[in-house]
Design goal:
five-stranded mixed beta sheet, 434 residues, single chain, flat
Length: 434
């Protein structure tokens, strides 16, 4: 046991001790401030070096491509030679037969996940990303958007994307709206249609962007509890409010994190009860909306009634500041949206369709690091629309885009639906045709 320091014998000695302690504290604060400032300078220098490395990589990649172009190539031919760098077409050899530089394992991973493969930055060359030669892809993206907006039920979500700014990066947003009728018997059953995903970009996370994109649309929207969607559900919205359907995967997440850390029997019990609902959903996935609703009324509704009573009872015993209480409040404050699936067989239990659509962006971020500009973000959203919609329909995005780009120049706009992934037929191999 340590002996405490003796107290000063007189006032002068106490005063001297106080001054010494104050001087020591001021010296420590000054040292901490210097260390903080030094760290900030180092962080800024690291960020600057990252940007410089990305710029040099882009520059080197362009030089290599130019060096490998055939002599005399110009105009549209030169664009086609550079076209092998368009999203979804990271290839080992150029059209002319020369070897292309290998962008690395991360780029190959991004391609396999359906992420656009662009050297250096996302949509750094806007014309090459959304065009091949002089062929615009806008009619295709517009047709996919119209198909998604024709759905009675959609999924929505968003994810951050770094965007290049002066001397730094800022945070933009890529949003997705997904139509997927397969869980309730689609496609082509009782007014259902093939799956599709449309993406759009915004420079920030304001809910006004979702309001603008969904202007004029009404129906059921499955989403998380993002506050930016709030005005879409208002009764005074024109032409009418969107019906909110909650995501039980998000509602379960708060409990699951606590249960995984073994921080409470309440969280563990909540996870078990919610998992029982998901088990029922797996059994009726793909059934018609009427069949799903009948099973839910028979099996899921009693579980929901018990779960609500149990949650309210547990919540009354907990401190409002506890993590478990916050997880319970997340559900109870949105109980109407979370129980929407009991009244409509088309509603899914989760928003996983939208989260899966965004997965390619998360993989792609390791490859392209940041979007080169807001325009680059918008063009990337167009490419993700094409790639993800092809994947949802079981179509190889590379093969589909290659075929569509060859046919688009002479294809009537009034028949653009023939080129959509669910209507597209892969061309026969030359050997088979012969």
């Amino acid at each position: 046991m340590t002996t405490p320091e003796p107290l000063p014998a007189d006032l002068a000695e106490a005063h001297a001790m106080i001054l010494a302690e104050r001087a020591g504290r001021l010296a420590a604060e000054a040292e901490a401030a210097i260390a903080k400032q030094t760290k900030r300078v180092l962080d800024l220098e690291i960020e600057r070096l990252k940007l410089e490395i990305a710029r040099l990589r882009r520059q080197r990649f362009r030089h290599v491509v130019r060096a490998q172009r055939p002599a005399g190539a110009a105009g549209a031919g030169a664009d086609r030679a550079a076209g092998d760098r368009r999203p979804g077409r990271c290839r080992g050899r150029a059209a002319g037969g020369g070897a292309q530089p290998d962008p690395g394992a991360q780029r190959r991973d991004a391609t396999q996940a359906g992420a656009p493969c662009v050297a250096g930055t996302l949509a750094a060359h806007p014309r090459r990303v959304s065009r091949a030669g002089d062929v615009s892809l806008q009619p295709l993206t517009a047709a996919i958007e119209a198909h998604v907006r024709a759905a009675a039920r959609i999924h929505a979500d968003e994810t951050p994307v770094p965007v290049l700014a002066k001397g730094k990066t800022r945070e933009g947003r890529l949003w997705t709206v997904v139509r997927d009728d397969r869980p309730f018997g689609g496609p082509h059953l009782d007014g259902t249609g093939p799956p599709a995903a449309v993406f759009f970009y915004s420079p920030d996370r304001s809910g006004v962007h979702a309001e603008r994109f969904l202007a004029g649309w009404t129906g059921i929207m499955q989403a998380d509890a993002f506050s930016g969607f709030g005005r879409l559900y208002k009764s005074d919205r024109r032409p009418g409010p969107i019906t909110e359907a909650g995501c039980w995967a998000h509602g379960r997440r708060g409990f699951f994190e606590l249960a995984e850390l073994q921080q409470g029997p309440i969280a563990i019990e909540a996870v078990k009860r919610i998992d029982a609902l998901f088990a029922i959903e797996r059994e009726i996935n793909g059934a018609s909306a009427e069949q799903r609703l009948a099973v839910r009324n028979q099996r899921s509704r009693p579980l929901i009634l018990d779960l609500e009573a149990w949650l309210r009872d547990q919540n009354a015993r907990l401190s409002a500041k506890s993590k478990t209480a916050k997880a319970i409040d997340y559900l109870l404050k949105r109980w109407t949206a979370f129980t929407r699936f009991l009244d409509d067989g088309r509603v899914c239990l989760s928003n996983n369709a939208a989260e899966r659509a965004l997965r390619g962006i998360a993989v792609g971020r390791r490859n392209w690091t940041f979007a080169g500009s807001d325009e680059g973000g918008r063009r990337a959203a167009a490419m993700y629309t094409l790639i993800e919609t092809a994947k949802l329909n079981g179509i190889d995005p590379r093969a589909w885009l290659a075929s569509v780009l060859a046919r688009l120049p002479g294809h009537p706009t009034s028949r653009i639906h023939e080129l959509l992934p669910w209507n597209w037929q892969a061309p026969e191999p030359i050997s088979a045709a012969a």
